[in-house]
Amino acid sequence: MAYTEEELKKELETKEYEYGFYTDIESDTFPNGLSEEIVVAISKKKEEPEWMTEWRLEAYRTWVQMEEPEWANVNYEKPDFQAISYYSAPNKKPKYNSLDEVDPELLDTFKKLGISLDEQKKLAGVAVDIVMDSVSVATTFKKTLAEKGIIFCSISEAIKEHPELVKKYIGSIVPQKDNFYAALNSAVFSDGSFCYIPKGVRCPMELSTYFRINQAGTGQFERTLVIADEGSYVSYLEGCTAPSRDENQLHAAVVELIALDDAEIKYSTVQNWFPGNKEGKGGVFNFVTKRGLCEKNAKISWTQVETGSAVTWKYPSCVLKGNNSIGEFYSIAVTNNFQQADTGTKMIHIGKNTKSTIISKGISAGKSQNSYRGLVQVNSKAENARNFSQCDSLLMGNECGAHTFPYIEAKNKSAQIEHEATTSKIGEDQIFYCNQRGIDTEKAIALIVNGFSKEVLNKLPMEFAVEAQKLLEISLEGSVG
Amino acid sequence: MELKDKLVSSFMAFENTVDLDSPIHEIRSEAIKNFENKGFPTKKDEAWKYTSLNSLRKIDFSIFPKADNAIEYKDVKKYFLHEIDTYKIVFIDGIYSSFLSETTHDGVDVCLMSSALTKPMYKQIIELYFNKVASKDESLTSLNTAFSREGAYIYIPKGKMPKKPIEIINFATGNEASLMIQPRNLVIAEENAELQIIERHQSLTSNAVLTNSVTEIFAAKDAIVDYYKVQNDNADASLIDNTYIDQKGNSAVKVHTFSFGGKLIRNNLNFFQNGEHIDSTMKGVTILGEKQHVDHHTLVHHIEPNCESHQDYKGIYGEKSTGVFNGKIIVEKLAQKTNAFQQNNNILISDKASINTKPQLEIFADDVKCSHGCTIGQLDEDALFYLQSRGIPKKEARALLMYAFANNVLESVRIPELKTRINKLIAKKLGVNLGFDL
To answer: Does B242 touch chain A (CB under 8 A)?
Structure first.
């Protein structure tokens, strides 16, 4: 079958969002709009202690004075923050002990998504903390983890049960006033995950959370806090899909990672929220602040596969504070139709002998715009800092754009920094070479795109790599085999 | 008074001294309005994130220099490329010095902006080219446009080539406590013309000088332009150099920038490719010490298909110097088959020195090859040891390695005498005498 790039493009454009469905679960939703009362009400609803309410209010007060940032290379209609409902939780909220107790409708949703809890439990050995419209409804493997002293629960639970940890670390890496969306999140976050790995413990399984935006007109404001105590190790997975919706949905999450001395955190994300239809209508706005702190000899590794969202604005960063700490960032960002992505990372070298690696792959198709924006900063005390950055872009069709904005600031003479970026399309000669050897064009493109993204896909945990492949398929259907 | 207010209020006085009926009167008025609206750029502007003009804005610069500032040739001979014969357009404190200059109208026009702006015979060309490629939006360029009166005017007709290279030199004598000059150059190379230009700004005393220069270059079909900027001014002189280049099909324009001296240098180098098979090359060597600051901003706008651009900037930063490189490549949707390459390598040799670099790509076409590379590092310890083990003292060994580092850029200098001169400047800057040229 002769399969040209033209046909592929057509098919990509007409490809509807596979996961576009809507689950009808009675929701307990707040009226639209944001005010101090709403912030207090959210806090109250979550039965939070007073210090938390104060913390939220402080964030709200800063947020009111802040302006929405405009520097990113994206165009979109700004969300009306007074037209969003800031709290929505599934109504039936018992604490389940087994899956049988879970609302069958909800289970059905997950089945459609291809997330079978049973299967995940048994085959993959993944503990899944499912966040459905902001409130944690199912937590598995908690017992196994508890035996090791690992705390893995929703953040609201952690606020109640481990206030000392939350109080100490929340906002320590991403302060309330860090940026517009972080401030908003700090004020109204509804739920999220909390994870604490005690000293010297290696978490025996991949921890994972699936986020879903479900209720119409509901913004989702997740807050994730992962703390790896001295010498511990954890691999954390986060994956997302959202149902089809015509109006834009806002998602402003904050993720904070803390890796104490000798600890290692591996944080992987697969993001496949509704990107809008082929006219560019609808889709999720994804404005995320993710940042990690590395103490002595610690390591934080971010891996992300970004295929969804109408607008993405996301820069997972590492603050390399301790000596000999390591930061890594591996990213694949795929944009199609009218999607816009402005994503990258920040590596702040403060300690001596710190190292960072940045590998970013951008694939743009249709009329999409894909930008890499990154900062590598070497402070004057950061002796022997080392950075390697590579940003590659692949363009499919002549209506899309690929952009690179790398900022490099070096203040120490012993710093060694390399940055390289390339932009190209899939070479006709590459396809011809494959054709010649009996590989049809579709498979050839799949092969090339796979090879292009391999460096990043390899960094994903096994179970996730499969899903990431699936998502690449959906986003660039036909071009990935 | 703030420098901005002073400039804006001086505009009327300036306009009265020049011909109000001049066709560019309107252009000047528009430009001053834009400057008045925008003012001097601040660190809040993305393009000026790393370069602050605050210290300059506080200085009470004199804007209208006195006319009678003569200097002896023997005092300034060393600033000319005196080994070879050249055309010279020399300005002293912003005012043309016929004594030091050597202009021509023999087949080609190598003369003055002031006469081009006033004499009727140039009217048509001025209307066609003046302020056509320079930004009407950028405030400092507008400021220059508003006060544009003097500078070099070079017109090379179809198929012509001047007999010798052209030197444009701006001297500041220091007769004023602090002086601001705004040269405005216009270079037009018609079809198949070829020329070489060497530009230099030189202050002769330690009085403060601020030069805000704008050069417009038009390269028609098949034209070849080589432009060399030698920036080795003394520590109290600051330079804001804005160069705008409009290229037509098959033309090749090369701009070399050698930044060794000066207090603050900002180079805005902008290429616009309006045709196919264009070659744009920009290369630079920057060697800084003390508290010097150099900011290279380049822009290559690929508008049509099958064009190329090459950028290669090398920087060596010592003592408390700071360097900035911001290279921007835009490839339009139509500009398929573009090859755009950008390279920026830096060496930091002091703990107090710093470098900020931002190689930026904005690409809207799919069938392109674009790459940029950027490194920050040190001299290779092993290479240094190798040289030392063969009896080369450390200082010379370091210099050798730095020469080698910068050599890529020097290779493409097409005037041998200039190359020798640059080599000497580099040796002086590095404080060594290798006794041979590389």
So the answer is: no
